[in-house]
Amino acid sequence: MTGRVLIPIGDAAEAIDTLYPLYRVREDGFESVVAGPEARTYQLVMHETPPGWDITREGPSYHLKAHVAFRDVDPAQFTGLFLTGGRAPEYIRYDPDLMRIVRHFFAESKPVGVVCHGAEIVAAAGVIDGKRLATVPKCRMDIELCGATFVDDSCVIDGNMVSGRTWHDQDRYMREFMKMLHAQAAREKDTAHLDYSRI
Prior knowledge:
CATH topology: Rossmann fold
């Protein structure tokens, strides 16, 4: 196993936003660990913008089990963090343990992937002041009020964070996220080797 990637979810996390990263990191040998407010099964949703609509329409989708509750997560045990979209971020961003987890990844400069409404989580964590960030346009105000610059692009890299607007951008931002994960895993391996050599 190359490393572990934490994927926080809640009810109404967007299915494609969530499932593609979950399996993509596994393809490269990483373990994907799903976390939620509680260790239980959550209802994912499908978001689409029907022709003629100005906003997305939501429908039920697959179910996904969270392996661990936020309060039981030790972020030091993870190589990367992926923040999915949907409506789940609107309420899980109030969880103090999720905020603790997110701040760890930024403090340690470990890879963070963000898509769509996942931007609401990094905004709530207070870690995006002065950063450039892609998100769905209706979250623009959320991130700008927290000091970030909204970028309407399929892939934006700023330090340890890579972001995209929606799942339509997955071929761009996930490619970069995987590069960041591999680089971090190599650093962790080197650090572990150095620590062992001192024994």
